[in-house]
Input
Amino acid sequence: MYTEKVMDHFMHPRNVGEIENASGVGTVGNAKCGDIMRIYLDIDENQIVRDAKFKTFGCGAAIATSSMATEMIIGKSVQEALQVTNKAVMEALGGLPPVKVHCSLLAEQAVHAALWDYAKKNGLVIEGLKPPVDDVDELEDEEA
Ligand code: FES
Output
């Protein structure tokens, strides 16, 4: 049911861990399944994501999507990182089973929450960035 890419990122996740003194940290959860994801960003003075790490207390799809999401945002500007949607992450993984789509939202929203934290700490406004939600389940209801 999972693509080879999903299995690869689940079995060998990239960028697991923490960043000390991170530029931004974002934590989101999904109350329905109880899974939680935290993303750490190291952003340089030109607003480029120098490094990204994650910790995911969640299912295999959540781990695979956080791994892929961090890979996709490293080296990007904060504005480009914001464009890395859950759909883009899913596409990069070759798709997810429909019941697992919500897991990819966790990755997208954790990145947004970390960007929000970065913006707040630096008194910046990142165009198009919305305030983070604690529970991504609310967003799913909106999308449905
Ligand atoms: Fe909760 Fe996948 S089942 S994030």
Observations:
- The first helix runs from residue 4 to 11.
- The chain has a mean pLDDT of 95.
- The beta strands are 24-30, 35-43, 49-57.
